[in-house]
Amino acid sequence: MSRLQQRLNGLRHAGRKALVPFISAGDPSLAATVPVMHALVDAGADVIELGVPFSDPMADGPVIQRSSERALARGAGMAWVLETVSAFRQRDAQTPVVLMGYLNPVEIRGADGFAAAAAAAGVDGMLLVDLPPEEAESYQAAFSQYGLALISLVSPTTPQDRLERLCAQAQGYIYYVSYAGVTGASHLNVTDAAEHLIQVRARATVPVFAGFGIRDAHSAAAMAAHADGVVVGSALVSAMEQSADEDAAAARASAFLRPLREALDGEPR
After folding, report:
1. Domains defined for the chain, CATH in brackets
2. Residues near 116 by Cβ (< 8 Å), separated by ≥ 6?
3. Residue 83 annotated in active site
């Protein structure tokens, strides 16, 4: 059983909601990425989504776009991202790491070549924002050979026939985009999102995590009432943006995430 599946099973058996922080690899600095990942785990992260910097992050809002640009300027390409996951694995062999990014860096290496390298580095899954479900089967087959889950994205505007297909293809968990738009916007309507989440969860055979618009403990708890977990990204990236060094970045990441963990668990950490 994969590391990701073990974690998801453990959450389900314990009746706990998953907390999944997203950070951009290489930001606020190259040196900060691994310390921040460890700090997030210590603060209660169940899975880490590590953003792969890309030159045209069309699904991301301004905060993550700027973060990606800064990281690329520092040299945080795919090869460096995989090296970073390997470095994280030297101390943490249990926490699942899912890469979130775009298709181009994978296509350059080929699905099989990328999957082999990612698995060797300690990656557990991949979320490809611009991979249509109609074209996902060959990637899913290649990834599965190496134990990588191909995470599906579902949004409120996903047509019913495509929703059925995505739910059938789903591995690991489904990332539910809580509203149509880019990451980091502030117009999350929990009531509307909850209605769509009920439909998705009724069809899904894997956990459904809600992302986009999760900004603090209140919004995390509100969405977790209707989902199996929550993903927080732009607000966390923004919280670390002005960190002077890796220690400051790790401290800010921890301080940001702990209240969300407490809100989901109802227990101080």
Report:
1. 3-265 (3.20.20.70)
2. 146
3. no
